[in-house]
Amino acid sequence: MDWRAAVFDLDGTLADTLQTITVALNHGLAVLGLPARQPHEVRRMVGEGIGVLCERALPAERQDLLPRLHAEVRAFYDRNTLLHCRLYDGVEAMLRALDQGGLRLAVLSNKPDELAVRTVEGLGVARYFDCVLGHREGCPRKPDPAALRWILERLDLDPRDTLYVGDTPIDMRTAGAVGLAAVAVTWGFRDREELLAYAPRYVVDRPAEIVRIFLGGEARA
C-alpha cells in the first residue's frame, strides 16, 4: 500500500507526558486535600481529556469536587505545559524522515487545543506538521470522528491512503470511525494486548518501524 499521510495522536504517541499529567493532577488533588495518584494509575486514566481524567481520579463519593479539580489541574497545566515533557526516543528522527519523504503529517489530540499546539511547538517539532488540532469547545472529543474528518477535509487527505497512529483504544476507535487504517504504538499508555483487541493494521514497538511502513516496505508486527 502506498501510504501518503499520517495523523498522529500526541500524548503517549509522540510525547511522553505521563509525569507532566501526573504532577498536574496531583497538584489539584493536594489543593482539595485528597491523596495523590501514582503514575501507573494515571496511565490508565488518560486519553479522553482533562475532564475525564479528573472524574476518574476522584472517589465516587467526591464527584462534587470535579469542577474545582478540573479548574486546578487545568490552571497548573497552563503554567507548566512542558514540565517533564519530552519526545519519545526516535520520534523526531521518524518525523524528519517522513517529512523528507514527502508525507503529509498532522496531530489530533484530546488535550485542549492551545495546550496541544503549545506542546508541539515547545518540543520543537511543529515544522513537521501541516495541522495540529486539540480539543475545541463545540467539537466532540475522540473517538467521535468529527475532528479527524475535519483534518482530512482541511488537508485534502484521502482516508484510503492515510494512517492514524496512536497508543490507546480511543485512537483505534477514532481511526475505525472514519475508515482509516490504524497504527498502534506500544511505547505509550496502553499495553500491546489491549491494542490488539481492536485489530489495528500495524502494531509497532519503535518509531523507526513507522518509517519503514511508509518508506521502506510494510513490515507488519
Q: How do you describe this structure in short?
A:
The chain is an alpha/beta fold and 221 residues long. The chain contains 10 helices and 8 strands.
Structural write-up:
With 221 residues, the chain is an alpha/beta fold. The chain folds into two domains: 143 residues, HAD superfamily/HAD-like (Rossmann fold, 3-Layer(aba) Sandwich); 62 residues, DNA polymerase, domain 1 (Orthogonal Bundle), CATH 1.10.150. Helices cover 43% and strands 16% of the residues. It has ten helices and eight strands. The chain has a six-stranded parallel beta sheet with strand order 5-4-1-6-7-8, with helices on both faces. Strands 2-3 form a two-stranded antiparallel sheet. Helix 1 packs across helix 4, helix 3 packs across helix 4 and helix 5 packs parallel to helix 10. The C terminus is likely disordered.
Characterize the main sheet: 6 strands, parallel
Radius of gyration, in Å, reads 17 Å
The topology string of helices and strands comes to EEHHHHEHEHEHEHEHEH
**Second CATH tier, the architecture of the largest domain:** 3-Layer(aba) Sandwich
Number of strands: 8
Strand order of the largest sheet: 5-4-1-6-7-8
What's the average pLDDT? Answer: 94
Q: Roughly how much helix do the residues carry, as a percent range?
A: 40-55%
SSE class: alpha/beta
Q: Detail the poorly predicted runs.
A: 217-221
The N- to C-terminal Cα distance equals: 16 Å
- The named CATH superfamily of the largest domain: HAD superfamily/HAD-like
The count of helical stretches stands at 10
Taken from the alpha-carbon principal axes, the silhouette is globular
Number of domains: 2
CATH class category label of the largest domain? Alpha Beta
State the CATH topology of the largest domain: Rossmann fold
Percentage of residues in strands: 15-25%
